[in-house]
From TrEMBL:
<feature type="domain" description="Secretion system C-terminal sorting">
    <location>
        <begin position="374"/>
        <end position="450"/>
    </location>
</feature>
<dbReference type="Pfam" id="PF17957">
    <property type="entry name" value="Big_7"/>
</dbReference>
<protein>
    <submittedName>
        <fullName>Por secretion system C-terminal sorting domain-containing protein</fullName>
    </submittedName>
</protein>
<keyword id="KW-0732">Signal</keyword>
<dbReference type="Pfam" id="PF18962">
    <property type="entry name" value="Por_Secre_tail"/>
</dbReference>
<feature type="signal peptide">
    <location>
        <begin position="1"/>
        <end position="33"/>
    </location>
</feature>
<dbReference type="InterPro" id="IPR026444">
    <property type="entry name" value="Secre_tail"/>
</dbReference>
<dbReference type="InterPro" id="IPR013783">
    <property type="entry name" value="Ig-like_fold"/>
</dbReference>
Length: 452
């Protein structure tokens, strides 16, 4: 006879149910009960292991005991009978136990069962007060003692959005200090943490609002930034990516320990330049691999070495095309080859990824431009600026290779407040330095010349 968990009781299940009722009437407990039932304190049960149209069920292990909870749903609510049938292991009979109804209308049973035992469980239950009986023998549930099978049926994932940088296309000057900020909220709980990522790399996290992270010493390249919010129920949401460009102060699109590179669009052509650095200098091989668009292969092209030791390659590529670029190159003359395939660069044809002036900004411009006086300087200079909006600021000093020399000042300013920071030059060698101002609205960079 085919089992049906909603229309009638199978013979075996019916027999067990009748014996359970008879034993309950005559003796006050099932004949096969191996342990007394225990009524749990009344409480609101929000999480369950399984949810069906007629009931929800959960099993929780505490020490040597397992507590089973049967929660009637819909028309089943109000019934006065629930019998749980438990099989310990993968074979054998199902032993039935009468469950105890608590103050909130749920039924509970606690039994001592060894950790690691795989249980198969089904129920016989009354549909409403004095109503007919149904059972779930055809679709038993599985639970392994000692594990957590709870799932939150009502946990809504949090919302999160990046508030700084506010939109793709923001431009910073290397060595960049980028303030990442996000708004996060959870409609049915609280925010446990907000993490900030560059691609798949975790930059940092903030556990309390306002959610921010300051990323310092960022070298020239294109980056994809996201914020990931996790709520108290461990649900999470990732924000829409924001793409930012960090321009290298040395005139290149990106600078890495082994090399720097640039891409310049002239008319219909793009010229790629590979500039060896350190031990890479003197090598006689550089191959550029270029993917046009977001998918497809990376064709390789041998670059031509020029008189100054750089390598160049020119190719016609349609304006607006987003290219992904990496290099294979020789470390010194006759040395081994290395590749940057695992960390390619991004360049959009027709745009500039190099600093062309003294100031690069992201977001709204500052009311008063960043200024230095005197410049060139000998012993000291003054840094003047005025943010357009209230908030934190930081001023740093770096050399032209992007190495931070000092943090000149940091704090909070009112909108339009005129700020003057003194900078001593006595400990600096003659040369060119970069003064960088970072606020939540933008970044500005000014060249400083020290000449005694």
């Amino acid at each position: 006879m085919k089992k049906n968990s909603y229309n009638f009781l199978p013979c075996a299940a019916a027999a067990r149910g009748l014996w359970a009722l008879l034993a309950l009437l005559l003796f006050g407990s099932p004949l096969w009960a191996a342990a007394p039932v225990r009524q749990l304190p009344a409480g609101v049960l929000a999480d369950y292991c399984f949810n069906t149209p007629n009931y929800s069920f959960k099993a929780e292990t505490t020490g040597p005991n397992v507590t089973f909870t049967f929660s009637p749903v819909g028309a089943t609510a109000g019934g006065n009978l629930a019998i749980i049938y438990i099989r310990e292991g993968s074979a054998g009979a199902y032993a039935g136990y009468n469950m105890v109804k608590n103050a909130v209308g749920d039924f509970v049973l606690t039994r001592a069962i060894a950790t690691g035992v795989v249980l198969s469980v089904y129920f016989t239950y009354e549909v409403g007060a004095g109503g007919p009986q149904q059972n779930s023998a055809a679709t038993p549930h599985s639970y392994t003692v000692g594990t957590n099978c709870l799932v939150s049926a009502s946990n809504v994932p949090p919302t999160v959005s990046m508030t700084a940088p506010t939109a793709s296309g923001a431009v910073f000057a290397a060595p960049a200090t980028i303030v990442l900020a996000a708004n996060a909220a959870d409609s049915d709980g609280t925010i446990a943490k907000v993490e900030f990522f560059q691609g798949t790399t975790l930059l940092g996290q903030d556990l309390t609002a306002p959610y921010t992270y300051t990323w310092t010493g960022v070298i020239g390249d294109t980056y994809s930034l996201t914020a990931k919010a996790t709520d108290n129920g461990n649900a999470n949401t990732t924000s829409t990516p924001v793409s930012v460009l960090v321009q290298s102060a040395d005139g290149y699109c990106a600078t890495r320990p082994d090399y720097a590179y640039s891409a310049v669009t002239t008319g219909a052509n793009v010229t790629f330049t590979f500039h060896p650095i350190g031990a890479t200098a003197g090598g006689n091989l550089a191959i550029v691999f270029i993917r046009e668009g977001s998918i497809g292969a990376y064709p390789g092209y041998t670059m031509v070495k020029n008189a100054v030791g750089d390598f160049t390659f020119t190719k016609a590529i349609g304006s607006g095309t987003i290219t992904s670029v990496y290099f294979t190159y020789e470390i010194g003359p006759g040395g081994p080859q290395q590749t940057s395939v695992s960390n390619p660069h991004s360049y959009t044809v027709g745009t500039s990824c190099r600093i062309s002036g003294t100031t690069a900004t992201a977001g709204p411009m500052l009311t008063t431009p960043l200024s230095l006086a005197p410049n060139p300087g000998q012993d000291r200079t003054q840094i003047r600026f005025a943010p357009t909006m209230a908030g934190p600021y930081q001023v740093t000093l770096s050399d032209v290779r992007g190495r931070q020399v000092a943090v000149v000042g940091a704090g909070k300013a009112s909108a339009g407040q005129q700020l003057v920071l003194p900078l001593s030059l006595q400990q600096l060698a003659n040369g060119i330095y970069l003064v960088q101002l970072l606020t939540g609205q933008g970044v500005a960079t000014q060249r400083l010349v020290v000449n005694r």
